[in-house]
Amino acid sequence: MKKIVFMVINMNIGGTEKALLNMINEMPKDQYDITVLMLEKYGGFLDAIPKEVKVEYLQDYATYKQLLNRPVKTTVMELIKQGKIVKSIALGCVHTLSKIFINKMFYYNYILKTLPVYKNNYDVAIAYAGPMDFISYFVAKKINAEKKIQWIHFDVTKIGFNKRLCQSLYKKFNKIYVVSNEGKNKLVSKIPSIRGKTEVFNNIVSEKSVLLQSNLGVGFKDNFDGIRILTVGRLSKEKGQDMAIKVLSRLINEGYNVKWYCLGEGAALEAYQKLVTQYNLENHFIFLGADPNPYPYIRRCDIYVQPSRHEGYCITLAEAKCLLKPIVSASFTGANEQIINNETGLVVEGNIEEIYQGVKSLIINPQKRKKFSEGLNNEKALQQKKRVFN
Predict the structure, then answer these.
(1) Domains plus CATH for the chain?
(2) Would you say the pTM of this structure is higher than 0.85?
(3) In what order do the strands lie in the sheet with 346-348?
(4) % of the chain beyond a pLDDT of 70
């Protein structure tokens, strides 16, 4: 039986974590001894981890998290106040070197030198929450495994991506998986040396599970009789809910009988609530909070919108497709690999005007909504036919 460890930040309700759960559920339990190693004991998906999977936490992480996340100047000043002059000078010098060579590896090697190698040995160690510098570093340097895999879930041109650090770390990995073709091409354009060991591995979506769970629970609890628009995702700038609020304002001002529901939680909630108040949309833009089972909501919505500024491979888009929903998606990385524009949904530029025009076209044209649902159903039938004959 192969021993495999997946390393993640936590089990927050999000696409990366959902993709991990889907993958674990597809793996034969009699062939794999699976461990999920987390930096933090946190998240709405904790209880969704199968019972036969080992769950462990990196106890030392809290010690190093502050050093990694707070400004180096703050740490240096604190060391000086404590009388640790040599340590403060050493830390300052290492940080300066990292900046001069634009490579955080110097800094990581210095502050993590006392971090012990992990207690267990594995056949395969996977840095699943990627690119996340600390997890990549830990799997590369602090876990003993015969094979090491880096998983990339995001568009590396849109997030903080230290090219030289990753270039150094990725040498330690046998394989690098990226969740979309476009995402792979962007990664390889930044680090051409990894082309030969980089492959595409789309996030797994269990259609059977989505359909089953969509019939559990009631979803929307109001009696609204207009057009329900739904967006699922973490409340953050990259997910684009601020654009959704401004699009909805225009639709309401033009007299359309719509409500926009937002399923998810995140750091931007307070800012978005203020934006909703600013546009007088308290009765029209509804924050539903987080729910481990978003599928009853997706099943009952009329239009699904993904306004993200960037993604890797949007798993909520794939789930909405499973439920044959008319979709409007921003043209983030991987969107055109999931949707055939004007056949199975709309892929529009990720700005307020284009999202507005796309959503409006589906509101006023029920036949277009029906066309997209039928297109998704035909696509599903074709895929099933291919599986049968292959």
Answers:
(1) 2-60+116-200 (3.40.50.2000), 63-111 (no CATH), 207-385 (3.40.50.2000)
(2) yes
(3) 285-289, 258-263, 227-232, 303-306, 327-330, 346-348
(4) 98
